[in-house]
Design goal:
10 helices; four-stranded mixed beta sheet; single chain; alpha+beta; 262 residues
């Protein structure tokens, strides 16, 4: 059978017209269009999606590992540096005994050579007192008991370079302290970084300040050797792991309570 034509749809009843409310001219609507070529997108925090440089990633991973893993006492002691006031005194004294720069040494040698070629005797001066740098040189001074104070950086990498130095200082009864950080020590001796610096002596005007500093350092580091050798670090888990552990402990406590009631 042939299909019958569909009936035309009924006309839609005209809806009631809404009353147009007068708009306030002070506050005009300006809707934004964030499509391509239109309004600028709002700024978002994209730091989670950034691929950071390798050195930054390694720093952050190392910090997390030091929190998660159990850290032996020999390594953990480097997280305990001197307080701010003592560090200020240490660096004040270090900056007084900075070694001469390469330019200053060249000028001194040049002046001595010119005086010698002119027929005059070279000026006799006392041996200058400077802080000593270089891990091998510092270790030798400690073994010979010539070092009066040893300053060690807390962030040496790899840590094996200095991990044995506090034990050597305690054995040879040489006062030592751990400060932040290797770049700050390096600036004292005109280098990028320095692992450790050593005082071999000070001038008469600084002997009082030096003796006070040595007493402070001895009480905080040398005399606390046994305590520092027993203190392990790390073992701090993340927020999710801590929450799971808490839930397990609660479940065990509930089971124990049920058994007691039964």
């Amino acid at each position: 059978m042939p299909k019958l034509p569909k009936a035309a749809p009924a006309p839609v009843a005209a809806g009631k017209k809404k009353k147009e409310e007068p708009e306030n001219s002070l506050f005009e609507r300006r809707p934004k269009n964030f499509g391509i070529g239109n309004n600028v997108q709002p700024t978002k925090d994209m730091s989670r999606f950034v691929k950071w440089p390798k050195n930054v990633r390694l720093q952050r991973q190392r910090r997390i590992l030091y929190q998660r893993l159990k850290i032996p006492p020999a390594v953990h002691q480097f997280t305990r540096s001197v307080d701010k006031n003592t560090a200020t005194e240490v660096f004040k004294l270090l900056n007084k005994y900075r070694p001469e720069t390469k330019e200053q040494k060249d000028e001194r040698l040049k002046a001595a050579a010119e005086a010698k070629t002119g027929g005059a005797a070279a000026p006799q001066t006392k041996k200058p007192v400077f802080v000593k740098c270089g891990i091998n040189h510092v270790a030798t001074l400690i073994e010979q008991k010539k070092a009066s104070l040893v300053v060690i950086a807390h962030d040496v990498d790899p840590i094996e370079i200095v991990v044995w130095l506090p034990a050597l200082c305690r054995k040879m009864d040489v006062p030592y302290c751990i400060v932040k950080g290797k770049a700050r020590l390096g600036a004292v001796v005109h280098k990028k970084t320095a692992t450790a610096l050593a005082f071999t002596g000070v001038r008469k005007e600084d002997e009082g300040a030096m003796s006070k500093l040595v007493d402070n350092v001895r009480s905080n580091f040398n005399d606390r050797g046994e305590e520092l050798n027993r203190k392990w670090g790390g073992g701090i888990m993340g927020a999710k792991s801590q929450e799971k552990t808490r839930q397990k402990e609660k479940a065990v406590a509930r089971e124990a309570a049920k058994r007691m009631q039964a």
